[in-house]
Design goal:
The chain contains seven helices and five strands. It is α/β, with parallel strands linked by helices. Helix 6 links the parallel strand 4 and strand 5 (148-149). This is Arylesterase.
């Protein structure tokens, strides 16, 4: 068996849902159905920032050999307005540490977009931040030659029927779409 580590925040953890409804669990079902020899590990932590991920990375990497590592952090950085440069540095640290410890592992980066429509606020600084935030993921993927999921929440963000009451976290149907978004990039690699 090979190991796939899903390293992220509440979106990965499946916040507010039973563990079996998180997208890593849904992908495990797909792996099993296709008889692919992979075990999916969900290391999603609600509220996690890229800095928090950087801090806990060594603990996670010490638990299992890693064959595939899906990095899906940054949403909480965006919500908190953490400088894009800082988020980018933290994610690059995680990528570098992974490559050092597991040089043969396949890394996949999930992109995110700032979760709010900033237009009505008229804030040029906020709109500028949103653009920089979205771009940081593509930039990191290109710089590191990583397979890239352009937008983890594609088809889910802003759709009330696909999110929990908080309007931020995908419900079970939303997690199914996240699983599909990830599989489009991950599936061909396996």
């Amino acid at each position: 068996m090979k190991n796939i580590i899903f390293f992220g925040d509440s979106l990965t953890a499946g916040h507010g849902l039973p563990a079996a409804q998180s997208f890593p669990s849904l992908l495990q079902q797909r792996l099993d159905a296709q008889q692919l020899p992979y075990k999916a590990y969900n290391y999603g932590v609600s509220g996690e920032t890229s800095a928090g991920g950087r801090q806990r990375l060594a603990t996670v990497l010490a638990r299992h050999p890693v064959d595939v590592f899906v990095l899906a952090l940054g949403a909480n950085d965006g919500i908190r307005g953490i400088p894009v440069r800082e988020t980018s540095q933290n994610l690059q640290f995680i990528i570098d540490a992974m490559k050092r410890q597991f040089p043969l592992a396949q890394l996949v980066l999930a992109g995110l977009e700032f979760p709010f429509d900033l237009g009505p606020l008229g804030g040029h600084r906020l709109a500028h931040y949103a653009g920089e935030f979205k771009a940081l993921f593509r930039t990191l993927a290109d710089k590191n030659s990583l397979p890239f999921i352009p937008f983890l929440l594609q088809g889910v963000l802003g759709r009330r029927e696909l999110n929990l009451a908080d309007g931020v976290h995908p419900n079970a149907a939303g997690q199914q779409i996240l699983a599909n978004n990830v599989w489009q990039v991950l599936g061909p690699l396996l």
